[in-house]
Amino acid sequence: MFKAIATSCAAVLVVSIAQSSGEDLNGLILEQVKQMPQGGRYSLSRFAKIRLQSAAHFESGKFFILPSAASPSFCSGATYLIFIRTIEALRARGELHLDFATLDQLIIRDQHDGEGIWGRWNANGPGTARLFHELGLGQNFDNFDQAQPGDFMKIFWSKQVGRSEHGHSAIFLGTRNRLGVEYFRYWSSNIPSGYGEKSVPRSKIAYAIFSRLQTPVNLSRIGSAPFVDSYLASLLRRRSSFAEATQKCGL
Fold first, then answer.
1. Regarding beta strands 161-162 and 62-65, do their DSSP bridges make them parallel or antiparallel, or are they unpaired?
2. Residues 97, 100, 106, CA angle at the centre, nearest 5°?
3. Residues in contact with 127: Cβ distance below 8 Å, sequence separation at least 6, in sequence order
4. What is the pLDDT of residues 23-69, one digit of tens each?
């Protein structure tokens, strides 16, 4: 009986540590958001992608995140910059150690949807959540009431997932009530003004998948993962469903 109690207590302790770590990382993520520039403009142009690559400069084993307020940007690129900034902040504190091969995988190149880390993050459908599930980076969920400021989120404005979807990669900031209507606040690169905060009535969001960063050390698992995530790669040409998306993300 004592052994069973000890095992139970150990399990509770592990869960508590994981939850505390997740909350701490959410705070760190929000710190990175505060340090980002405001404005610019939203664009999916080739130039915006080039500017994103230059904003996440990798040199001598370190990322230098230097986005310009005047540069065009897009949503998945904006949230990925926050993700990399968070990784670098943890490395600077000595709280995260990643080998060069893993850091090299974080570099933004011309990856297609589903290829490597950036190609997964930038893909149609639940790119970030699929990456989190595949590598074990943290918890995914679709319950709005569980969301905490600092969670990454993929918003689906319609019920379409994959080809023809209307989605948005963002970082959840909280909720507010206006005249009895609940609004969701989030940060991203938003149409039309680029980097900044925005809020929308919750009723305008068809679906959302939240991803809470908890175990970034598991980024090292990308070395043993398939180079291409076939599900995410397929979403350029085929329709999925929210049920399939959540199943692929471990919900």
1. unpaired
2. 90
3. 76, 113, 120, 121, 154, 169, 232
4. 589 999 999 999 999 988 898 888 888 888 888 888 878 888 888 77
Asked whether 231 and 133 are in contact (CB, 8 A), the reply is no
pLDDT at residue number 6: 41
C-alpha to C-alpha distance for 145 and 67, rounded to whole angstroms: 32
- pLDDT digit string, tens, across residues 126-139: 999 999 999 999 99
Joined together, the tokens standing for residue 47 give: 């130039």
pLDDT at 158: 95
Task: Collapse the DSSP code of 174 into the 3-class scheme (helix H, G, I; strand E, B; otherwise coil) and give the result.
Answer: strand
- Beta strand 41-42 pairing with 56-59: unpaired
In angstroms, the CA 95 to CA 50 distance is 31
Name residue, tokens 């900031």: 173
Enter the pTM of the model: 0.89
Q: Where are the domains of the chain?
A: 2-248
Q: What per-residue confidence (pLDDT) applies to 216?
A: 97
Token couple for 1: 């009986």
Cα-based angle 94, 100, 102 (whole degrees, multiple of 5):
90
Structure tokens at 197: 């905060």
- CA–CA separation, 14 and 82 (whole Å): 27
Return the residue matching tokens 């990925």.
80
Evaluate whether 102 touches 221 at the Cβ level (below 8 Å).
Answer: no
